[in-house]
Amino acid sequence: MASMKKVPLRKCAATGDMLPKKEMIRIVRSKEGEVSVDLTGKKSGRGTYVSKSEQAVEAARLNRAIESQLKTAVPEQVYEDLLHAIRREALK
């Protein structure tokens, strides 16, 4: 019997849902304080996750969930980048 590989779960900053890491997008704050979307999931720095849905991104924007997780201001461009990444993936 093949052993079941454990799927890494992450909590969505916006919805609080626990989802597989592959269904999330990571947002990271670097040591320099720069906030960016981390599509590789490998950038160093403090990270938080958001579900790959436009609703989750909008919820995070409204309730400032990413800002409170990363303890810093999040530029509007980061939300635009998130939405762009979600829409691009939806086209695949």
Describe this structure in words.
The chain is globular. The strands form two sheets. The protein has a three-stranded antiparallel beta sheet with strand order 4-3-5. Strands 1-2 form a two-stranded antiparallel sheet. The longest helix has 15 residues, at 76-90. With 92 residues, it is an alpha+beta fold. It starts with 8 loop residues before the first strand and ends with a helix. 34% of the residues lie in helices and 24% in strands.
What is the CATH topology descriptor? Answer: Hypothetical Cytosolic Protein, Chain: A
- Assign an overall shape: globular
- What is the average of the pLDDT values? 93
Helix tally? 3
Oligomeric state of this protein: single chain
Name of the top-level CATH class: Alpha Beta
Query: CATH superfamily, please?
Result: YlxR-like
Q: Which sheet architecture does the biggest sheet show?
A: 3 strands, antiparallel
Structural class: alpha+beta
Helix content: 25-40%
Topology:
Elements: E1 9-11, E2 18-20, E3 24-29, E4 35-38, E5 46-51, H1 54-63, H2 65-70, H3 76-90
Antiparallel strand pairs: 1-2, 3-4, 3-5
Helix pairs in contact: 1-3
Features:
92 residues, Hypothetical Cytosolic Protein, Chain: A, two-stranded antiparallel ribbon
Provide a short characterization of the protein structure.
Helices cover 34% and strands 24% of the residues. It is of the alpha+beta class and 92 residues long.
